[in-house]
Amino acid sequence: MESSLKNVLVVSFGFLLLFTAFGGLQNLQSSLYREEGLGVAALSTIYGAVLVSSMFLPSVLIKKLGCKWSIVISMCCYVAFSLGNFYASWYTLIPTSIMLGLGAAPLWSAHCTYLTIMGNTHAEEAGKIGKNVVNQYFGIFFLIFQSSGVWGNLISSLVFGQKPTQGSGVLAVLLVATFLQPIKDVQEKSKGEEKSSSFWSTLLSTFKLLRDKRLCLLILLPVYSGFQQAFLSGDYTRSYVTCALGIQFVGYVMISFSATNALCSVLYGKISQYTGRIALYMLGTGIHVSCVIALLLWKPHPHQLAMFFVFSGLWGMADAVWQTQNNALYGVLFEKNKEAAFANYRLWEAVGFVIAFGYSTFLCIYVKLYILLGVLSLTMVAYGIVEYLESKNLAQPLAMEETKPAEEGEIQTKL
Question: Where are the transmembrane segments (predicted)?
Answer without folding.
Answer: 39-62, 69-88, 137-160, 215-232, 244-268, 280-298, 343-363, 369-389
